[in-house]
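S-adenosyl methyltransferase structure dump, as promised
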Amino acid sequence: MTARDDIDSSRPHPARVYDYWLDGSNHYEVDAAAAEQVVRVWPGVVLGAQLNRAFMHRATRWLVREAGVRQFLDIGAGIPTEPNLHQVAQAVAPETRVLYADNDPIVLHHAQGLLSGTPEGRTAYVHADFTDPDGILNSPELRETLDLQQPVALSLIALLHFITDERGAYEIVGKLMNALPSGSYLVVSHATADFDPDLLTRVAEAYQSSVAEGQIRSSSEVSRFFDGLELVDPGVVVAHRWRPEEGEPQPDITDAEFPVYGGVARKP
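structure tokens r here:
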């Protein structure tokens, strides 16, 4: 059975809904309908998806330029949308190695778009689920791509709000970070209801009714993912305020219009 045969086009999937918001082409009518259902509740979600992506780009560049990271594990990678993480990292350091992981068959189908890295570096993809960390850590793709004796940045972009406490969100992050050596980093972006609880409640209801379950978390709950790690300044902040780069246009929006936290932390 091929990856395309495995794709369930009768139900929306988070990766394909996100692709719709990013003006991609790898989604179905059911995904577009679910995406528009959220847009009706939260018109700023499309800009939010773009700002979330921009946070990933900045965090990746900072990790490569300033922290010297040359290896990334990106779980919940989603459908390839250029520039992908490896393109951002390898533009700074061509020798960077990146392993992507996702559980959506449509991402597997398009994984070739995640593998066009530099000759000096390496990019690979493993079809795996975040809730099975052993499956990721013990995969041949990881062994062939990353050296776990050297620092690795674990990138969890817009993923953890789909993983409830009951499904072990904190424990899984802890297990993944425990497998990485000192000097590794954790990168997280995560939706919150801190600024407009009513809005995010309605968004969560619209999303969970059609796409996926999840859990919106507060600042302290998002910060808990970084327990035992050293937060990089400015800490856990609304993602578009995390280390804006010189010359980067700043969106004229309130925190309530982009209620997504971002943070980066180092494993001592």
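The longest helix spans residues 45-65.
lmk if u need the other ones
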